[in-house]
């Protein structure tokens, strides 16, 4: 069994390797999509339809005041989707090069507000009174360890508005086992593993959807809409 110090060191090594890999990735759409820039429009369209479905419900719908783009990269999703639907858009991105490119790309978008240049595993809100209607987490959890995902989700729950929703859009392994990529230190989780993670974080899935039309060489991609499971949390308190 690893001691606490050994565990911390292994986590540090993991994120250093991920950071090292991404330092070689160009700050372009092709770089963000691993050479598949041609799927960007399909990706944005599927996200738009999913978002509108969530926001077109009745009293339980999230508002459109503020959204957090997690793993924002160069701002592709913020620019093409989130700035068109929310009054304020905040970005969270670990890479300094990517976040600077995002600022440049979004300079003509007046509703872009805060840019947090930090990895989600180290994210601590500057102001817990700033609340989000949607926290959009796309293609970044594969680089984050399970316990750090749960820790981050617990932070997210503290900054969600009353009807706020956490959206996770990510690659999903085809089988029942996770798939590890030694080149970029990513973990493509199985559907059952995602469900286990959400349960451990006391989240309930209110909607899930598979993205159709992606090229065959790519992993399956799912979108999950998640809310805090308040009944479970109250029963455990």
Q: Can you describe what's shown?
A:
With about 240 residues, the chain is an alpha/beta fold. The chain has a single domain (about 5-235), classed as Rossmann fold, CATH 3.40.50. The chain has 8 helices and 9 strands. The protein has a 7-stranded mixed sheet with strand order 3-2-1-4-5-9-8, sandwiched between helices. Strands 6-7 form a two-stranded antiparallel sheet. β1, α4 and β2 form a beta-alpha-beta unit. The two termini are about 30 Å apart.
Could you name the key traits of this structure?
237 residues; alpha/beta; Rossmann fold; seven-stranded mixed β-sheet; two-stranded antiparallel ribbon; 8 helices; 9 strands; globular; disordered N terminus
Q: Count helical runs.
A: 8
Question: What's the end-to-end separation, in Å?
Answer: 30 Å
Rounded to the nearest angstrom, the radius of gyration is 17 Å
Relevant CATH superfamily:
Vaccinia Virus protein VP39
Tell me, rounded to a whole number, the average pLDDT.
93
In short:
The chain is an alpha/beta fold and 237 residues long. It is 35% helix and 24% strand. β1, α4 and β2 form a beta-alpha-beta unit.
How do the helices and strands line up, and which of them pair or pack?
Elements: H1 4-22, H2 29-32, H3 40-55, E1 66-70, H4 76-80, E2 88-92, H5 96-105, E3 112-116, E4 132-138, H6 146-158, E5 160-172, E6 179-181, E7 186-188, H7 191-200, E8 203-210, E9 220-228, H8 230-236
Parallel strand pairs: 1-2, 1-4, 2-3, 4-5
Antiparallel strand pairs: 5-9, 6-7, 8-9
